[in-house]
Every structure is written in C-alpha cells, then in structure tokens.
TrEMBL record, chain A:
Membrane-traversing stretches: 16-35, 64-82, 142-162, 194-215, 245-278
Family matches, as CDD domains: TM_PBP1_LivH_like
InterPro entries linked to this entry: ABC_transp_permease, ABC_UrtB_bac, BCAA_transport_permease
Bilayer topology term: Multi-pass membrane protein
One of the Pfam families matching this protein, by short name: BPD_transp_2
Entry protein name: Branched-chain amino acid ABC transporter permease
Coiled-coil region: none
Annotated PANTHER family: ABC TRANSPORTER PERMEASE PROTEIN, BRANCHED-CHAIN AMINO ACID TRANSPORT SYSTEM PERMEASE PROTEIN LIVH
Automatic annotation (TrEMBL), chain B:
Species, as recorded: Nocardioides phosphati
Compartmental location: Cell membrane
Sorted UniProt keywords: Cell membrane, Membrane, Transmembrane, Transmembrane helix
Domain of life per record: Bacteria
Membrane-spanning intervals of the chain: 61-81, 113-135, 141-159, 191-211, 241-264, 276-302, 314-338
Residue ranges that the Swiss-Prot or TrEMBL entry lists as coiled coil: none
Broad class of where this protein is predominantly found: membrane
InterPro entries listed in its UniProt record: ABC_transp_permease, ABC_transptr_urea_perm_UrtC, LivM-like
Topology class, membrane: Multi-pass membrane protein
Identification of the protein by name: Urea ABC transporter permease subunit UrtC
CDD domains (alphabetical): TM_PBP1_LivM_like (cd06581)
TrEMBL record, chain C:
Domain of life, per lineage: Bacteria
Domain ABC transporter: 11-247
UniProt name for this protein: ABC transporter ATP-binding protein
Natural source organism: Nocardioides phosphati
Presence of the UniProt keyword Glycoprotein in the record: no
GO terms of molecular function: ATP binding
Length: 294, 362, 255
C-alpha cells in the first residue's frame, strides 16, 4: 500500500507545482505565441522573494504568507519589464522570442549567482507546515498538501478571472481572434501586458512553493522550465483542463518511475513518453481548432 | 559575368578559410592556441549543421548536444579502451566496481573501424527516427525546439545518472592515444588539428553544395511555406528530415573530434546549456548565410575560452546579451550586414534593389 | 441537372461529405469534372466550394469517394494526390516569395525528377519551365522574387506551377478575384488555351467571367450541389435564382 500511496501523493504535489508554473506559460504561449524561456528564472525570483521575505520578517510562520503576494508582484513586474523591453519587438517572430528569452534567462541566472550565496539559500518551512499527515500509514509532509491547495487556489482564481471579469473576456477574445478583438475596441497591447504580468506572477507564486521543497539556487529555473513546457505542449493550447491533466500525469508518472528506477532515468522516461504522446496527438490533449493553410 | 563571379565567390571564401585554418594558423599559432582553435572548429561543425536546419530550414534545433554526445562518447569509449590496452577496463569503472566486467555495449568500441562507423551511423539512425516521428506528425516551430531541448536535458541526465557505464558527471578522460598516435606528441596534436579543420571545411563544402542545389531551394521553400510545398507534390517532412540528419552527422563528427582535443567528455559539454551555446555563434554570425555560422562559432568559441577563464560571470552576461541584442536588432546576424552592404553594392552595379530583407526572419 | 455522359478520364466525386466538429460543410456531393471543358464552381459565400476542393486535395478529411485515373483520392496525403495529377491554387495566392519566378517554377517541376537529383544545382532552364514562362507571360520577370509580383501575376505564376508539375486536373480557387479587367480577359484566354487537354475547375464569384468562359457550371449552396449545366441552363434555373441570385434584385443575373 505504502509503495503506491507515497509516489501518488508526492507526484500529485510535484504535479501541482508544475501546474502553477505551466499555467503562466500556457497563458503567455497560448495568447501571444511567446515562448518565454526566462519563465524558469521567474520561478527562481519567486523562491528568492520567499527567502528575502523570510530575512526581513522575523516570523517564518507569517513570512511565507506574505511572500506569496509579494512574489506574485515581483515576478509579474519582471514579466512586464521583459515584455516591454524585449518581447514587444518580435511578436511576429515567435521562435525568436524563444532565443531572446534564453539570453535573458542566462543573464538573470548569473545575476542571482553574483548576488546571492552561490551554494544557494534555504527557506525554512514554517512551523504550521512542518507536520506530517498520516495517509494509510504514509507520513505525508503537510507542505505537499499546501502546494496542492495553492495550485487549486491559483487555478480557481485564474479560471474565475478568465470567465467572469471583462478583462478575462478580453483575454479570451484576443486569444481567439486578435484582429477581430482589436476592431472591437480591445486594446490588445494592454491585454498582452496584463497577461504577461499575470502569467509571470504565477511563476513567482510557484517559486515560493518550490522554495519550501527544493534548494533555492541559480539552477532552480532550469530544472523546471523544460518540464513545464512539456506540460504545456502535451496539454494543448487554449484550454486549462489540458494543462491540469498533463501536469498531474507528468508529476505522478515521474514519481512512480523514480520509485521504480532512479530520478534521472525517470525524467528520461517521462520525456520520451511525452514525445511518443505527441506522435499520437501532435496538438496536445485539447486544442481550439482553427482554419487555414499556414 | 557578374553572376559567374557571384557563384564562385562562396568557393573562394571556403578556399580562403581553408588557407587560413590549414596553412596560416599552424604557422603562427602556438601548440596551445592551435589546440584551442581545434576545439572551436568542433563547435563550428555543429554550428554549420544548425545553420542548415535553422537558418535554411527554419527548424530551431536546441538539442544538438544529443548528436554531439553520440559522436563524442563513441570516440571517448574507443580512446578510453585504447588507452587501457587490450582487455583492459577503464579506470573509472574499476574505481566504481573492481570486479565488474566491461559492459557489453562498450566491447565493440575497441575497434577503430566500428567507432568511426558509429560516429556516422548513430546520429543518422537517431536523427532519422526522431525526425521521422516529429516531422511526419507536423510538429514544428516552438514545439520542435522545446522537444529537442528536452531530449538534450534527458540525455544529459541519463549520462549523469549512469556513472557505471558513462563516467557520470566526471565523464570520460585520461586518454593517452588517438588511433595509435600518442597524444603527448605535439606533432600528433597538430595532426589532429589538421584533421579537424579539414572536416570543418568538408562540412562547409557539403552545405555549400546543398544551398546551391535544388534541395536548398526546396528547403527554403519549406521553411517559408511548408504546407504549400506539399501541394507541389513533395512531402515536406522528408525535406526537413534530410537537413536534420545532415546536421546531426556534422554535430556528431564535431563531438568525436572534440574528445582527443579537449581530452575529456562529460555531460556538461552536451547538455541544454551547451546546446544553446552551439546556437549562439550561429545567431551571431548569421543563421541563413553560408559563412555566418562558422565564423560566428569560431568567434563565440574564442570569446568563451578567453573571457570565461578570467571572468566567467562576465562571459555569461556577454553571451546572454548577445542572444537578446542579436535577436532583437539583427536577426540575420552579422552576415546580414554584409549582404545588405553587398546588396547595395550590387544594386549600384546592376541597378536592382536588394531583396534580402526578410531572408532570415523566418 | 443535365444528364452529362461520363468521360473516361473524369474525376468522379460520389457522395462526398465533410463535417467540422459536427457542422456539415459539405453533404452528399456528387459531381464529375471532365477534361477539355472549363468547369466553373459557383455559389454564395460559405457554400462549401473551397471545402470541396480541400477535401479533394487532402487538406481536410471527407467521406464518400473521389476517384481519378482509377485511384481513390480521399485518404491520400496531399503530396500523393498531387503526384496523382491533381493540383490546385489557393484562394489567397501562395507562392514562395523569397524565391524568384524561375525558382518557383523549377521547384514545381521537381516532382518528376528522381530524389537524388535534388542534390544537384540547377543548370539552365528546363524546357517545361521555359514553356510555362511563355504560357503565363512572365518570361521577362523570371528573375524577380515572386514576392514583388503584382497580385494577378502571382495567380498566373501559380497556374504556371501547376503547368510544370503537369497537373492533369487543376482546381483554381477564385483566381481572377481582384484582377483588373484586362488581366481577367488574359486569364480567360490562358485558361482556354491550357484547358484543351486538361480538367480545369474554377471557383468564381464574378458572373461576367463565368458567363464569358464557362462550359459547365456547378452551383453549390449550403454544402450541396444545387444545379449543374450550361450557363444558359443555370441562369434559367429557378432554384438557383432563388437561393443564389434571387436574394438581390430580380434580374441581377446580369449584375
Ligand atoms: N476548418 C473549418 N472549421 C470549421 N468550419 C469550417 C472550416 N472550413 C470551412 N468551414 C465552414 O464550412 C463552410 C464552407 O466554407 P467554404 O470556405 O468551403 O465556403 P466557400 O464556398 O469557399 O466560400 P467563399 O466563397 O467565401 O470562399 C463555411 O460555413 C465555413 O465556415
Ligand atoms: Mg472559398
């Protein structure tokens, strides 16, 4: 029993982390076709925000809660700056955004390396999260439940914004038909910026959660970015449910394969599985169909 | 007259580069610098292939490290076995487990012929399978780029995690001889440089022929309007596949030569970061141009080994900025400046307007 | 519907249907396209004309059957259909803008060459390409990048590409739309010339052009074939007048 429960729960928690990271990516990739390779470093920015907040606020119990909104704003602001300085020049060249943001990611990573201790920093888990839950005999760290709840909250908030607010309608209109949205008076520039803010901000939130689980050093972003992208790709663009399922499947299957083999082999297997999956469904799980030759 | 001249210019350029690498460089450079130059030549071979796939084919390959590794590890295993002599077992394996026999897949690499065959065959097989799967299903653009990068990450992780078979993160090293030639002898090292530079020139000649052939035109057509090509009766997947496989072989050969030159092969020479580093020179030099990738890669290679030794951090900033600035301001790389200049010149001569503006933006 | 006799080299479409996520863009279309006559496909916007051609050229999946030269086209990949001799142009002209007129044609001529010959550079101009340049009247512009051509010239280039790839059946989607009166007249001439021994199907909205050049007209409406026959027959057809032309003023057949 234990051998099934542990990877299932751990994997679900990892999947939840991936989901928060991938949601932001799916938003910017889906809406603008922008491939932001610096998204991983935005995760790192979130994790570091968690660390810095902890240094400033004496109570670790409180600091984590404070860090979440602050990280959202910090990473979001980074996103807006990135959009305004780099990405806006190449909306018609999506592949180039990929390369340019690779460069940005390198710079950010080096900045972190130069500013923070190179061996990384540790974020202390607050007391109220430092417990275990007994699930069928498996001592499940409460932190993991926290990440799952956090992912649920992010998802709920995002879905609500997309569905019920006029801004959400503008985003969806822009995704479906940019030109038409423009003629209907939607300021797509503004929508792009806000989308970038939200998408990047989500990375910040994910970063705080990651800092509770993994060491926060300059390689944190690199570890997550490719998996997060695979989740987005496998989930398909245009619908959140694909991303959710893909994140969960990737998280859980990685956990199981890690259990059966080793961490590195597991990662390889999961990558290969995603590639095979894309053979079957090149557009991912769910897609909004469009017409056209190109 | 002018067209004649124009069509022989690239060959003259290749000849000039050959002269510079094969005659001038050995004459003026110290052993150490020549060895460094040999290393840049290996990276440049990878870059030439990236120019073919990305510049002409529009496929941004972010995982050439995979093919670099295929060649490099094939060569590394062979040289490792050669260094320990007949029936010997590499030191790292003995350290790991003194009693373990040589893994079965190592055994054939005792043979030099087999090794050389694998350096070519392995990338062909892997790239064909991968490319066939990816291109037939019409996976392209960013999806393709991400998938290739994921593969580089996966392979690097796999190698790091299988210390027993591959040496893990420390990699393969401690080579003493290269196909019977001892590596201690500076003369032999010069020979290795000559082989490498010749292979690089060979790669250039291959892409030169591909670019001027009908295949080259078809590749550009596929890059710019893939679906349209289908309606001319070609399967664009096959067109892309050929470019992808050729690039893979070039990366593999580059990787193979890298091993005797660098004296070590480890995952960090082929992981995601290394794969991106391979692209840097291509972007800088000009992805769609014949000479852009080579010259760019040589320049970036030089920058890497000079700057990164003294100020490693600064080099990363430079490289990062290079990506940002070049993609924003100069997507055609430095070569596009040259073509633009040449276009203006030709325009003055022939009275036509240059039409290269969008050539590299795809 | 006139009882046209079946030509042995005709492209036969039987009970063709196409649906997009439940929406039937084409339902149960029967039609045949025979060589030697200019066959026009007309119908209001959204009638399914382009979708019909898409289905016949492998761009969308259809059910039913479409045979040409003894081959079932449905289910074949687009490039296989082209190799079977069925070519098309697109509603918005799509040529390779970076390549010259000559290169565009040369690439189109390539499907009959053995694959390894692709590795060689082009030497001289193949006769088929030279002839096509002549036929479409772009000989003078052969070294121009296709991107700088005028709209009409691009359409001609596309027809030229079909010629060199030796398409026996050509679907031309709104080829003369956006052309000047002179260009239209020239295009009409061109189609007559090349249509003698080929099957040419033209999708068109301009009734003048249809009247001047059509041998056979098929009218589509809401995914079905509404009527088929000569121009006179179509103009006399009440169903056509009602759903297609009758929406505007009566007698707008001449508009
Ligand atoms: N890929 C698609 N997905 C969904 N609906 C489609 C798709 N392609 C076509 N349709 C629908 O099928 C119907 C037929 O379209 P089609 O383009 O074939 O019409 P058409 O006769 O060519 O019109 P036009 O004269 O405007 O070119 C239209 O209602 C169109 O909206
Ligand atoms: Mg149409």
């Amino acid at each position: 029993m234990d051998s099934l429960i542990a990877p299932l729960l751990n994997g679900t928690a990892d999947g939840a982390l991936l989901l928060i990271a991938a949601l932001g990516l799916a938003l910017t990739f889906g809406q603008m076709g922008v491939i932001n390779m610096a998204h991983g470093e935005f995760l790192l920015a979130g994790a570091l925000t968690g660390y810095v907040t902890q240094q400033m606020v004496a109570s670790t119990n409180l600091s984590i809660l404070l860090a979440l909104p602050i990280a959202f704003v910090v990473a979001g602001a980074l996103g807006v700056v990135l959009e305004a300085t780099v990405i806006r020049w190449m909306y018609d060249r999506p592949l180039d955004t990929l390369l340019a943001t690779v460069g940005v990611a390198m710079i950010l990573r080096q900045l972190v390396l130069d500013t923070f201790p190179s061996q990384g920093v540790g974020v202390v888990t607050p007391d109220w999260l430092d417990h275990q839950l007994d699930v069928f005999g498996y001592e499940w760290p409460l932190r993991q439940l926290f990440t799952i709840l956090l992912a649920g909250a992010c998802l709920g908030a995002l879905a609500a914004v997309l569905k019920f607010t006029s801004f959400g309608r503008q985003i969806r209109a822009t995704v479906q038909n940019r030109a038409l949205a423009e003629t209907l008076g939607v300021s797509t520039r503004m929508v792009d910026r806000v989308t970038f803010f939200v998408g990047s901000g989500l990375a910040g939130v994910a970063g705080v959660a990651i800092s509770l689980i993994a060491a926060t050093d300059s390689t944190l972003g690199t570890k997550y970015i490719v998996s997060a992208f695979l989740v987005v790709v496998a989930g398909g663009l245009g619908q959140l449910k694909g991303t959710i399922i893909a994140a969960w499947v990737v998280g859980v299957s990685t956990a199981f394969f890690t259990d059966w083999t080793t961490g590195s082999i597991a990662q390889v297997i999961v990558f290969v599985l995603v590639v095979i999956f894309l053979q079957v469904r090149p557009q991912g799980l769910f897609t909004v169909r469009t017409r056209g030759l190109a | 007259m002018i067209t004649r001249l124009k069509s022989s210019l690239p060959l003259l350029g290749i000849a000039a580069l050959a002269l510079a690498l094969l005659v001038v460089a050995p004459a003026v450079l110290s052993d150490l610098r020549l060895n460094n130059l040999a290393k840049y030549c290996c990276w440049a071979m990878v870059a030439v292939g990236i120019g073919l796939t990305w510049g002409r084919g529009g496929m941004l390959v972010m995982g050439q490290g995979v093919f670099f590794a295929l060649g490099a590890y094939a060569m590394g295993m062979h040289m490792q076995l050669e260094s320990v002599g007949d029936g010997g077992i590499p030191t790292f394996m003995i350290l790991y487990d003194p009693l373990a026999p040589l893994p079965a897949f190592w055994e054939p690499f005792r043979s030099g012929v087999f090794t050389i065959a694998m350096i070519v065959v392995a990338p062909v097989v892997v790239a064909s399978i991968l490319g066939f799967a990816i291109f037939k299903r019409r996976v392209k653009g960013a999806y393709f780029a991400i998938l290739t990068q994921a593969l580089a990450v996966a392979l690097a992780t796999l190698i790091s995690g299988t210390i027993k078979y591959t040496g893990g993160d420390t990699g393969l090293s401690g080579f003493t001889s290269f196909f019977g030639y001892t590596l201690d002898d500076p003369l032999n090292r010069r020979l290795i440089f000559t082989i490498t530079a010749t292979l690089l020139i060979g790669c250039l000649v291959v892409v030169w022929q591909l670019y001027r052939s009908r295949f080259g035109e078809l590749l550009v057509a596929t890059r710019d309007a893939e679906e349209r090509v289908r309606f001319l009766g070609y399967d664009p997947a096959n067109v892309k596949l050929v470019a992808f496989v050729v690039a893979a072989v070039m990366a593999s050969i580059g990787g193979a030569m890298f091993v005797p030159i660098a004296g070590i092969m480890a995952p960090k020479s082929m992981d995601a970061a290394a794969s991106i580093f391979f692209i840097a020179g291509v972007a800088l030099g000009g992805r769609a141009a014949l000479f852009g990738p080579v010259l760019g890669a040589l320049a970036v290679g030089y920058g890497q080994s000079t700057l990164s030794e003294q100020w490693p951090g600064t080099w990363i900033y430079v490289l990062g900025l290079l990506f940002v600035v070049v993609t924003i301001a100069l997507p055609g790389g430095i070569a596009s400046l040259a073509t633009r200049g040449a276009g203006v010149m030709a325009g003055l001569l022939v009275g036509r307007r240059p039409s290269h503006r969008k050539a590299a933006s795809a | 519907m006139t009882g046209r006799h079946l030509h042995p080299d005709a492209l036969l479409v039987r009970d063709l249907s196409v649906s997009f996520d439940g929406f039937k863009a084409i339902s149960g279309v029967d039609v045949s396209f025979a060589p030697g006559e200019l066959h026009f496909l007309i119908g209001p916007n959204g009638a399914g004309k382009t979708t019909l051609v898409d289905a016949l050229t492998g761009l969308v999946r259809g059910t039913g059957s479409a045979t040409y030269g003894g081959k079932e086209l449905l289910g074949l990949r687009s490039h296989k259909i082209v190799r079977a001799g069925v070519g098309r142009t697109f509603q918005t002209a799509t040529v390779f803008e970076q390549l010259t007129v000559l290169q565009n044609l040369d690439i189109a001529a390539g499907l009959h060459r053995p694959a390894w010959r692709l590795a060689l550079a082009r030497r001289g101009v193949p006769t088929a390409v030279e002839e096509a340049l002549e036929t479409i009247g772009l000989s003078e512009l052969r070294h121009r990048p296709a991107g700088v051509l005028a709209h009409g010239q691009k359409q001609w280039l596309e027809i030229g590409m079909l010629l060199v790839q030796d398409a026996r059946v050509m679907f031309l989607d709104e080829t003369v739309a956006g052309m000047s009166a002179d260009e239209r007249a020239e295009t009409g001439e061109l189609l007559r010339r090349i249509g003698r021994d080929r099957t040419i199907v033209v999708i068109e909205h301009d009734m003048d052009f249809v009247r001047n050049h059509a041998d056979v007209v098929t009218v589509m409406h809401a995914g079905r074939v509404l009527a088929e026959g000569s121009v006179a027959e179509i103009q006399a057809n009440e169903a056509v007048q009602e759903v297609y032309l009758g929406r505007t003023v009566k007698g707008s057949v001449d508009a």
